[in-house]
Design a protein that fits this description.
mainly beta; four-stranded antiparallel beta sheet; about 45% strand
């Protein structure tokens, strides 16, 4: 019989405020289960949101201070690729602008 405090693997769902275009998981030892989510809005102003999975409550938590504006949809997100906590805790993003050139 399983106790209520026992951790169980499963599938968890996070409903984003915006349509999702890109994702990245953090690999830092001190911040496992942290996810960066890039929006897909048909507008110049898009968003990147950092959410944390709480293993104790089996739920995602978010903080409005961890949402920032991004020009156009972020096509790629990546946390600093190191588990070592001595390295900086940073995230890199990229975006792509498609433009139509008129013949002159």
């Amino acid at each position: 019989m399983q106790g209520s405090s026992e951790k169980r693997p499963g599938i968890y769902t996070y409903i984003s405020q915006w349509p999702i275009f890109s994702l990245a998981w953090s690999v830092r030892r001190d911040k496992k289960s942290r996810l960066a989510i890039g929006s897909f809005l048909e507008d110049y102003s898009n968003k990147v949101e950092i959410v944390q999975f709480n293993r104790d409550t089996s739920d995602f938590t978010t903080d409005s201070r961890l949402i920032f504006d991004h020009p156009y949809s972020p096509t790629n997100l990546m946390f600093f690729p190191s588990e070592d906590t001595a390295n900086p805790d940073i995230i890199a993003t990229s975006g792509r602008l498609l433009a139509r050139m008129a013949n002159s």
